[in-house]
Amino acid sequence: MQTVRTLIVDDSPSIRATLAHIFKSDPEIEVVGMAPEPHTARAMIKDLNPDVITLDVEMPGMDGLSFLERIMRLRPMPVVMCSSLTAAGAEVTIEALRLGAVDCIAKPVGGPAELAASAALLCRTVKNAARSSARPRVTTTPPMASGESRNTRFHDMVIAIGASTGGVEALFHVLSSFPENCPPTLIVQHMPAAFTASFADRLDRSCPPKIVEAKHGQPIAPGTVYIAPGGTHHMTLQGGYNGRIRLIESDPIGGHRPSVDALFHSVAQSGAASVGAILTGMGADGAEGLLALRQAGATTFGQSRESCVVWGMPRAAAELGGVQQEISLSSMASTILSACRGEHRER
């Protein structure tokens, strides 16, 4: 059995020891080294060639985010941010995910039950990270450079997008290339409830459209992107282009809440006046919903395997027949907008 070779980077000796103990309890994980700060870690990465790095946010010499940015630029590899800051510091978490971290989890704390749950989550996250595909960050094309303008007409279309693992970075790329007058866009990104408001705010400060965390009863409008809040509700659309957002308190669907499938099924009522896209992510959420969109006459896209961090959700959707065309992340925004203008032709 091939193990996941893991390098622990943390300035706290006790945390390094705790993480090593947790990982060594899992026969599928091998701790190949531990580093107290980034400069030591850099040398160990070259010597040990680990499969996954767990990385603290705050360390002496160079903070974890700066080191993460350097890793993803010079030697892309799966990185899991593991820090006390990730539990409350949503802004730090979003920035780490934007820079290319596969996931962000809190350091193990609490009593025996909490520690056991944290240990299981840590091991599962590291093993999932090992199955991801790290790559250099994609350069974003400014929207005006791709021919968009405030005069562009999008024919009263609605866009629905679903994403999970790797989706934060992908959505920053896609939405950075959307113009200010983009069609109303509804997005489900699998994310804890504490992070979605900060995620929407961070996107809003970086991208041309207005980006907000969705609220129940909110009318959708051109030039606005709505991020589904994490937690206890599914986000759906009622009434199509002139409709309103509904946040429905319900059980998880396929283990997810909010669910991409719930969003896609509701947008399918708009038929050919909608475009659906499923981005990088683990699992199969959104596959059935994307098929419903396509069967209703919508144009549907799946992110290409080569550009995904995890080709799970797009693959499941493609195998079910929901994907009309696979598109690379670098071309996803322009392709979605072309479909909204009625210019897209399936190749």
Overview of this protein structure:
Helices cover 37% and strands 20% of the residues. It is of the alpha/beta class. It has two domains: 4-130, Response regulator (Rossmann fold, 3-Layer(aba) Sandwich); 143-340, Rossmann fold. Strands 8-9-7-6-12-13-14 form a seven-stranded parallel sheet, with helices on both faces. It has a five-stranded parallel sheet with strand order 2-1-3-4-5, sandwiched between helices. Helix 3 (64-74) packs parallel to helix 5 and helix 9 packs parallel to helix 10 (287-295). The radius of gyration is 20 Å and the shape is elongated. Residues 143-147 have low confidence and may be disordered.
Distance between the termini: 41 Å
- Calculate the mean pLDDT score and round it: 91
* Radius of gyration, taken over Cα atoms and rounded to an integer in Å: 20 Å
Supply the helix-strand structural class: alpha/beta
Low-confidence stretches: 143-147
What CATH architecture label of the largest domain applies?
3-Layer(aba) Sandwich
How is the main sheet built?
Answer: 7 strands, parallel
Our count of domains comes out at 2
| N to C succession of SSEs | EHEHEHEHHEHEHEHEEEEHEHEHEH
What spatial order of strands do you see in the largest sheet?
Answer: 8-9-7-6-12-13-14
Query: Could you name the CATH homologous superfamily of the largest domain?
Result: Methylesterase CheB, C-terminal domain
Helix content: 25-40%
- The geometry reads as elongated
**CATH fold-type name of the largest domain:** Rossmann fold
The portion of residues forming beta strands comes to 15-25%
The CATH C-level class name of the largest domain: Alpha Beta
Number of helices: 12
By DSSP, the count of extended strands is 14
